Amino acid sequence: MHEFVYADNNTGGKLHMYACVSGVGLVIVPNTKIRQHIPGGRKRYLLLSAMFLLCPAAGFACYITALAAGRIFFRKDADLSGVVFSKDRAETFARADEERELNITSFEEAVAVSDYRSLRTLMLNVLRGDVSQSLAAISLALNSADSETSHYAATALRDELGRFRDTVRRIYIEIGKRDENCAKYCCMAIDYMNTVLEQKVLAGMEQKTYTDMLDEIGAVLYAADKSQFTPEYYGMISMRLTEMKEYDRAERWCVVGNSEYPDSLIPYKCMLKLYYEARDREKFFETMEALRRSQITIDKETLELIRVFN
């Protein structure tokens, strides 16, 4: 600072030099990549500018030296050797809730108890899960003596069934276009509709309407792309028709499924269940004999069905 007060013959030259250095600092910092190394934003930059004005040469030299030292001695490239860039999903395992798991009971028994607090807790646990898979259990709580529990059940069923109707309507409209995505929408509709229809939570007439729609969508899929018609789809459609006592239409799907997949157990099981419900002993034992002659492994459910019918 004394250079500005007691100036000699070289005062003008020194002032000019200091002004030049300060100007260089004020111009270079905000207009170059140096600014990205100044944390703190505008406030930090103003402080550095003041330092360059008061100590232009020494301040700017120290600042550049500090930047260079930090870049040389402290900058390191990120170690990506342990990082795997993959689109595969990572499967995580959550610890079991032991207290909740130990208190599992059937919904039929839970609805009958008089401990309304426990019943409400059970209902809330069910509603926190996948409601679409628990509609049958939730419907049992509609007749609960606890008004709050029945309110929970009614609200959950109303919302989920409303979502079901709206989703089916939108998918059905897409199927009606008969474009290149028709088979995809048919598969989507069969999977989604069967999840609700097999739980029998719709009123009788509405259940029949959606079952007829499922039968229609199955016919569209069979005509559009038979290769996407899996044995499970034959089973879904035939079982829903059997429940509606549409035995002739159910048998048609069973026969077609058996011809398309002769080595699959599903069409045989569907036929056995169909003839069991229709009380057709002759066709039941014919199907059982054909299954016995095949190389298909019979599961426990089918053996139990045969034992009960006998």
Task: Describe the sheet with the most strands.
Answer: none
- Class inferred from helices and paired strands: mainly alpha
The total count of helices amounts to 15
Number of strands: 0
Number of domains: 3
Which ranges are low-confidence, i.e. pLDDT below 50, for 5 or more consecutive residues? Answer: 1-22, 100-104
Shape: elongated
* Proportion of strand residues: under 5%
Cα radius of gyration in angstroms: 38 Å
Helix content: 55-70%
Summarize model confidence as the mean pLDDT.
Answer: 75
What letter string, H or E per element, gives the SSE order?
HHHHHHHHHHHHHHH
- How far from one another are the termini? 113 Å
Describe the overall structure.
The chain is mainly alpha-helical. The protein folds into 3 domains: 2-67, no CATH class; 98-226, no CATH class; 230-310. It contains 15 helices and no strands. Helix 1 packs antiparallel against helix 2 (41-54) and helix 13 runs antiparallel to helix 14. Residues 1-22 and 100-104 have low confidence and may be disordered.
Keywords:
69% helix, disordered N terminus, 310 residues, single chain, mainly alpha, 3 domains, elongated
